[in-house]
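[Amino acid chain]
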Amino acid sequence: MTTRIMDLTVLIEVQALRKVVAEKEKDNDIKGAIPYLAKVAQIFDKQQPSGGSGNKGQPDDDMVRRMTLVLAQADAHYQLGRAYQQTGQYIQAEATLTLTARLLEKVSRAGYLTTADAQQQLLATYDLLIDCYQVMGKPHLERGMMDRKSKQIIRMSSTTTAAMPSISTVAGKQCALAPCIKLKGWHLAPVSPPYSRLPPFFFFLIDRQSSKQA
């Protein structure tokens, strides 16, 4: 039996859009990639976790699913916001990256910001917003974002890996697309190709029961 965070057809559509984005970026056509990045973000904005284990003995299962989807949604908006920022569209970048920060902070408050990738993406979002505010001449917002970043760094440094649940499994099921990635200080556990080349957080979009349970 397979349990999905997203409908498989939607995931295939997202992967196709990501492929076009990669081709545009390879040609250094960041502006041309923006419509496809926007479509990916729009898709994630409309998603709700699908499937279900049917195991009532796992009270955290639904929360893990929701947080996994929020991480993917945040990543989609981060990629879009960064593209806006790189092409000088600072108003759009500010709006998109502000949403990214809120989504990742939501996951952090829930205790599910467990990978170095996700934590560093949140810090990078703060940095991009700080740059936007500098260019837009908003020093008060710039200072506010710097304070927000400092508080988040303190939160991250005070959270141990033992206290954080892993989002690489759901109700005891193993991820079907990649091995478990857990926080070890500020470094990712080793990931072997081809998984290391997959887009961030796609690792968690499909999971399945272990072979012992099949």
About this structure: The two ends are 7 Å apart (CA to CA). The helical segments are 8-26, 30-45, 61-86, 90-110, 116-136, 139-158. The beta strands are 2-4, 169-170, 173-175, 183-184, 187-188, 206-208. The mean pLDDT is 75.
